[in-house]
Amino acid sequence: MEETAITRSQNAYNQDEEIQVVAFRLGKEEYAVDILNVQEIIRLLNITRVPRAEDHIEGVVNLRGNIIPIINLHKQFNLQSAGKEEDRRIIVFQFDDLKAGIIVDEVSEVLRLVKADIEETAKVYSSISAEHIQGIAKVNDRLLILLDLLKILES
Amino acid sequence: MNMDMSQYLDVFLEESKEHLESLNQRLLELEKDSGNIAALNEIFRVAHTLKGMSSTMGFDDLADLTHHMENVLSDLKEGLLAVDSKVVDVIFKCFDRIQLIIDSIETKGSGAMNNSDLIAILENVKTGNYEAAAALESELALPPQSGTDTDEYQESFVFNEYDITVLKEAASRGLRIFNVKIAVDPGCLMKSVRAFMVFKAVEEDGEVIKSFPGAQDLDEGRFDSNFEIFLVTGVTAETLEKRLSSISEISVLRIQEINVDSITAGQGSQVPVDNGNQLQAATDAADNHHAHKVKQTVRVDIDRLDNLMNLVGELVMHKGRLEQIGFSHKINELNETIEQIARISTDLQAVVMKVRMVPIEQVFNRFPRMVRDLARDLNKEVDFLIEGKETELDRTVIDEIGDPLVHLLRNAVDHGLESSSERIKKGKNPQGTVMLRARHEGNNVYIEVEDDGAGIDTARVKEKAVEKGIVAAKEADQLSREEIIALLFSPGFSTASNVTDVSGRGVGLDVVKTKIESLSGEIFVDSKPGSGTRFRIKLPLTLAIIQALMVSVRDEIYAIPLSSVDETTMITVSDIKMVQSQEVIMLRGSVLPLYRLADLLDIKGPAAAQEMYVVVVRKAERQIGLVVDSLIGQQEIVIKSLGKLLLGISGLAGAIVAGDGNVRLILDVTTLF
Q: In total, how many domains does chain B have?
């Protein structure tokens, strides 16, 4: 699938630029985030609820002595959790001094995408408010929703 | 500034700030006692060092300003100028400007500033033309004056009896005495090394008797582009010159043989050197360096300390876990080892905490100057006293406490103290007193700001509070004196009837209170009408490791800092009474309002059975009962931040990693309700 992606692009400048993403599932939808922001993927830890925090904050976990807030995207995007409990993971990511994790139902794979395959958000319908997504990537017959993690953190 | 210098910039900034602080302090001393020669000498020495540092770093405007300031200082030293308020004011202005330049270097990376206005004033002061200086000062902007003299620094040597004896003895043994002046290349990065090489070269068969600047300063590179030494040696001037010229990055400006008979001991004795560049030093300059005690210290990046603290925190946590294991398995050998580890980790923790401790002096030092300026602006006479400035506090607290104290001190001088005429009318000493005190008490530090002014006028506070709509007029009449004083901390409160430049901008004590609370501290006020007001700030010694009470509510566990817990007690449902739809209990005859933690934190689940526990906590000086399901016990906890994302949630002070690896949240009693 790498090749197909690469051969198809070329219409605009840096359209053939590649990015690597981590693909994962939230409910029945497939999502992806830029691998450069991902620090690690861990199994579910005991999450401690944080009272008075915003709704989409699931709580905090102890990651080797560091306290990390966990964001529940299911709640934020209004999705039902699906899949087996043992497949659930936390994706920990970092922007400068901002570190957080998101709970996902399953991490599927690491993919290479070509920019040309990524469609602008405005053209696509999604259940997510458009500001949180960078675009939709077509990989063969799959559609991956590319999340803008920084926007999610800032909201 | 070239690239090579940039690595020294941090050190330069840090040191200049220290120098400036010491300059301000000494000048205040000098202002109080114009005969204080030691203070004057110290100002002179520090100003000179500052000049040297800034010109080395290439901040020419700063160097130029300090140079002109130094000229005036030198006249003061020589007695050509009298130390009066006029001169002191001008020098204070220079200090302010230097501060500005240093700030600009720090923020913008450039020290360029046009100081011709100040330099012109300095020139006029130097020539005794005070009227012209005053005229200039009123404008503080004038084209630069030409013909500024760029004199070399004038060096002076004053010998004590011991030096004289050594010199005389040397002369009697046929040794020669030389005065050598060395210039170090302006581009030289390690001046101290060059100075050391010079010393080494001349000491091959001789001895350095004196140097200017002193050996310590030379050692640490704290000198301008040149320095001077006095030495006794067996070799000739030519040999000396040859030897010195082999050292790179320096040049020999002068080698002059001195006749020992021209040297006499004591005050004012000088060696005739060069073209009569003589300067009357009142005390031995070199000795002065030694009187200034230098502590052996290492500058450490605060991040590294934080890191160390974190690691120690982890250790303490795992020690706790080991203790639990040892306790449940009852293995004697293991328990003994754990005890040892416990002892070591306690010591280690104490040491690391100590390392993070900084004397509050750092913060206090800038206040005398501020109070002086303030008193002058307001035309008040103020005697400002500081006590306990050696009291140590955690670095994180030190960094934050400055602003609230500035506020309180300004309040004390502006609102607290009456004007001199008013004080005389009341039969008080026309000079008001403002006292700043710091002291340790248990695990807390108390800082007090006290004035002997008029005290808080509760009637006026009440009036103002009603006027500003903080309380209703009816309610106000029922308030006790304490409650009225507490109104001072309401947002948007200010009693100054005329808004001055100093305080009373409407942002006031509420900001102070918020700041103190964010540091897990508390603030109290005592005030006696007619005899003064005292603000007391109570702060924890450190914010990193504290004792906490662990409590559980339903299936959640929380930590309550022990510093805010007064006591705990068990109650049953039937003990709870209702007063105006507020749950209360009677505790030893007084009514204690109850808050259920489950409600406050929205903890779901079936309510506890018949029995429950009440944790009595203190908020300001009020007691409140927190209802929890059970008490788990007392624990030493390492506070961790919840991170940027969860910052500022009311009621939460941070998090800890418990012995079982789970995260528990720390409650902040001051913002919980």
A: 5
pLDDT digits (tens, 9 = 90+) for B475-499: 878 888 888 888 888 776 765 444 4
Q: pLDDT tens digits for A29-73? A: 899 999 999 999 998 888 999 999 988 899 999 887 788 999 998
Closest CA to B597 of B639, B552, B631: B552
Per residue in B29-63, pLDDT (tens digit) is 888 888 888 888 888 888 888 888 887 787 888 88
As a 3-state breakdown, chain A gives helix, strand, coil percent values, each rounded to 5, of: 20, 45, 30
pLDDT tens, position by position, B607-662: 767 889 999 998 877 899 999 999 998 887 878 888 888 887 888 988 988 867 78
B642 CB neighbours in chain A (<8 A) are: 50, 60, 67, 69
Q: In the numeric block, which tokens belong to residue B249?
A: 């990055």
Is some CB atom of chain A closer than 8 A to the CB atom of B308?
no
B290 flagged as catalytic: no
The rounded distance, in Å, linking the Cα atoms of B304 and B310 is: 10
Q: Which three-class secondary structure state does DSSP give residue B21?
A: helix
Q: Evaluate if residue B105 carries a pLDDT over 60.
A: yes
Query: Is B411 annotated in the active site?
Result: yes
Residue B48 covered by a domain: yes
**Token representation of residue B471:** 């309380």
Q: Is there a contact between A3 and A115 (Cβ–Cβ < 8 Å)?
A: no
A155 within a domain of the structure (yes/no): no
- Of B507, B540, B573, the position where a domain reaches its end is B540
Q: Do B187 and B117 sit in the same domain of this protein?
A: no
Q: What is the CATH number of the domain that holds B354?
A: 1.10.287.560
Q: Which of A57, A61, A153 sits opposite B663 (nearest CB)?
A: A61
End-to-end CA distance of chain A, in Å? 34
> Between A and B, how many CB-CB pairs are < 8 A?
68
- Torsion angle in degrees (nearest 10) through CA of B312, B650, B394, B46: 130
Q: Report pLDDT for B71.
A: 84
Tell me whether residues A69 and B643 touch, CB distance under 8 A.
yes
Regarding whether B550 and B535 lie in a shared domain, the answer is: no
3-state secondary structure of A93: strand
Report DSSP state, residue B639: -
Both tokens assigned to B192: 């101290």
- What ipTM goes with this model? 0.83
Are B78 and B131 a contacting pair, CB within 8 Å? no
| Interacting residues of B44 by C-beta distance below 8 A, sequence separation 6+ | B70, B73, B74, B77
- Cα of A22 to nearest chain B Cα, Å: 23
Q: What does the pLDDT average to over B256-272?
A: 59
**Beta strands across the sheet bearing A89-95:** A38-43, A89-95, A98-104, A66-71, A57-63
- In angstroms, the separation between the Cα of residue B137 and the nearest Cα of chain A is 48
Tell me if B646 sits within 8 A of B569, measured CB to CB. Answer: no
Whichever domain contains A26, its CATH number is 2.40.50.180
Residue B449 has pLDDT above 90, yes or no: yes
What's the N-to-C CA distance of chain B in angstroms? 55
